[in-house]
Amino acid sequence: MPMRFLLLFSRQGKLRLQKWFTPLTDREKKKVIRDVMALVLARPPRSCNFLHWRDIKVVYKRYASLYFCTGLEDQDNELLTLEVLHRYVELLDKYFGNVCELDIIFNFEKAYYILDEFLMGGEVLETSKVAVSVSMENADTLQETMEEYMNRPAF
Amino acid sequence: MPAPIRLRELIRTIRTARTQAEEREMIQKECAAIRSSFREEDNTYRCRNVAKLLYMHMLGYPAHFGQLECLKLIASQKFTDKRIGYLGAMLLLDERQDVHLLMTNCIKNDLNHSTQYVQGLALCTLGCMGSSEMCRDLAGEVEKLLKTSNSYLRKKAALCAVHVIRKVPELMEMFLPATKNLLSEKNHGVLHTSVVLLTEMCERSPDMLAHFRKLVPQLVRILKNLIMSGYSPEHDVSGISDPFLQVRILRLLRILGKSDDDSSEAMNDILAQVATNTETSKNVGNAILYETVLTIMDIKSESGLRVLAINILGRFLLNNDKNIRYVALTSLLKTVQTDHNAVQRHRSTIVDCLKDLDVSIKRRAMELSFALVNGNNIRGMMKELLYFLDSCDPEFKADCASGVFLAAEKYAPSKRWHIDTIMRVLTTAGSYVRDDSVPNLIQLITNSVEMHAYTVQRLYKALLDDISQQPLVQVASWCIGEYGDLLVSGQCEEEEPIQVTEDEVLDVLEGLLVSNLSAAVTRGYSLTAIMKLSTRFSGVNRIKKVVSIYGSSIDVELQQRAVEYNALFKKYDHMRPALLERMPIMEKSASNGPTEIVQTNGETEPSVVDSKHPPPVSQPANQANDLLDLLGGNDVVPVIQTTVPTKPASAGGELLDLLGDLSLTIPPMTAYNKNGLKIDFTFERANPNPNVAVITIHASNSTEADMTDFVFQAAVPKTFQLQLLSPSSNVVPALNQGTVTQVIRVLNPQKQQLRMRIKLTYTLKGSPVQDLAEVNNFPPQSWQ
């Protein structure tokens, strides 16, 4: 029973990252984003981190100015999902060093790469923090090699 | 052409835009530049442009023209290109697009690439958004990679296999050999993804499930190692070793142990160990406990273990952390059916959660509270639930009200309590009550015969306070219409009877008719109630006036009712008492006509249809009782319900049917002839129902003096149903100068021989006369 989607958005409702684990049309995706964002942003500060939307359980957690939000199916363990979200934040923090929203804005592709080393198809891929960091370093090195060779930044 | 601006440059620029329009302008300019660059087939800057496109896509702008470019990037040899290309594919392409199939070949090549990170990219993309066709084509490659010794690739291949199986379940068999030694891996990533793969296979196929049951000991061992092993910095989360893996193993054990005694027994010990040894101070420990509880409840665990699980949930309920309380309530809701008594022990904590500030917790607590209500705790629980109903948010009120009604119906300790509870709901949440509750409540009230006076009094008082809540007003008007006589006569036993005059009651009902707060349906209810009171109150003139006014109402429904009631006053006044009689006890079964209409046609129908049906009782109750005493009969039933044909005819039409056309196919007969009084029977068939015989009696008097106070009564055997309508007069003139006629309707569904006992009373020359007779000489055609 996997996650259906993972969204990162700011307090002002700006989307910073969207990862979809089920095939949806663009229109459907926009609807999900709009509805879930509205629900989550409307929650009072000390509510519990779970809510229901249609047939999905939505688990969200706020870290500084960003909301990390995911949709689960009925069978999934909500408490563990909070740990999954927390682990992702830790990974971002380790990679960027004291991560803040701006890091994710300007380096969104890296945020996606890190996510892809941690989750796949809505399931946890790697449970070791170290292993994910090592993979990212190696892949970046592979990329930088090309940059050095071409003598200019990748993009 | 100058080099396209860098990604970070673009992001910075767009963020300086102060309005949406400014942003849109910048984006359009950049998109145009990117499009020209794509047209020029510029290899160097392609990945830069696609990266920028992906950023703009995240802001919500269309980016479909970049799809093919992503494919080109994937095909490139540079790692940077591939990385962005695959990301773009995952964001912009999905299986709905035709172009996505073009990726298949690239992915196939990359799955066999020499660099594991490239292979990883390919596996990731396939595992996230591969379509069924792609999965079919590439399953072989994935299977190969599942057997590799490279743990980085193996774990990715495992999750990719999971995706393939989800898309194309038939391919599951293919991965079976590769699963043989997955669990002997030391690498946690591989272990975790293998457990996910095994879980997926077991969930989809009972054969696989049976096959993998033998893995239970191995899984138990792995779990044990995780718990017992010392600190492992790599996998540690707040003192717990790899909680993600622990939870996945627990879930797989749940699936394997379900409905299998041996497996369940093998995992008993480890479950007890996890349940007792896990540190609960942080969320992560509770996540594992939660999963453990779910597993214990699902497998065939011994009762001690189950009690342990419920107690853990009980402790969760007392936890300060809202998330944990929420999760506890959710799990208890799942287990309340199977372990009802155990959950009951935590009832008071659950009820306390109704007062929590958090909306999600309140909802769960409400659902669980309703599940816990039983005959023993009904009074206490209802008090809490009614208090909740008073103070909760509107989104809960409808569900809570329905829940209260259901619970009250099932477990009400007394009728009085039941009525009081209904009153409380109607007065506090009256406008949120569901529409179908109104007929159900009316039926409930009708069937609580001894509470009628009390009920109508309380409803009347509620109406005086507040007429804005429509369901309350509808039920109240119906009751006042039905039991208004009890209201004015001050007959209430349960509480202090109030002094109310007929005029005051009519004031209230008329007030409902004119009020802006009343819905159209409510107006219908009150008009009918007013009409019914014409037979229960003494002063009819006021009612006649009201009815005639509404004969020209703009509301078509009200107009129709008023016109028909008017007709009742004018032309069919002798039918009025019979038509507007008290309602009998209503059966809730679907076979009974009137109730069926109540359920399908919504609120308007009950009062309309019920009042228009020919009444089941044609004589006041006390006279029927006399008959019973006299005839001492077990085999006669003087008071019966009629199952009337359910076509919604207007009152006029049905009356016509009653009076019927005189089809003289059945010969008349003399039923009684004694002491100068002769009674003849003539027959007709009621057209819609061939089982109903309509008999008209003609009483004539051959003596010299009039027979005054003439009353004719009849009783039939149990298999028949009898209806006696009003006589034309109760004076039989002397010397055959005229006859008294009266109509009897007899329902004979079993087509048995018609028999009747009749009783005659009259006064002749000042002295009362009474006689009984049996009528057996009915012509065969009358009952065949």
From TrEMBL, chain A:
Belongs to the adaptor complexes small subunit family. InterPro entries: AP1_sigma, AP_complex_ssu, AP_mu_sigma_su, Clathrin_sm-chain_CS, Longin-like_dom_sf. CDD domains: AP1_sigma. Pfam families: Clat_adaptor_s. Keywords: Coated pit, Cytoplasmic vesicle, Golgi apparatus, Membrane, Protein transport, Transport. Its main location: membrane. This is AP complex subunit sigma. Residues 3-141 form the AP complex mu/sigma subunit domain. It is a peripheral membrane protein. Transmembrane segments: none annotated. One of its GO terms (cellular component) is clathrin-coated pit.
TrEMBL record, chain B:
It holds the Pfam family Alpha_adaptinC2. PROSITE patterns: GAE. GO terms for biological process: intracellular protein transport; vesicle-mediated transport. Signal peptide: none annotated. One of its GO terms (cellular component) is AP-1 adaptor complex. SMART domains: Alpha_adaptinC2 (SM00809). Keywords: Cytoplasmic vesicle, Golgi apparatus, Membrane, Protein transport, Transport. It is found in: Cytoplasmic vesicle membrane; Endomembrane system; Golgi apparatus. Belongs to the adaptor complexes large subunit family. PANTHER family: ADAPTIN, ALPHA/GAMMA/EPSILON. This is AP-1 complex subunit gamma. It comes from Gasterosteus aculeatus aculeatus. The lineage of its organism: Eukaryota, Metazoa, Chordata, Craniata, Vertebrata.
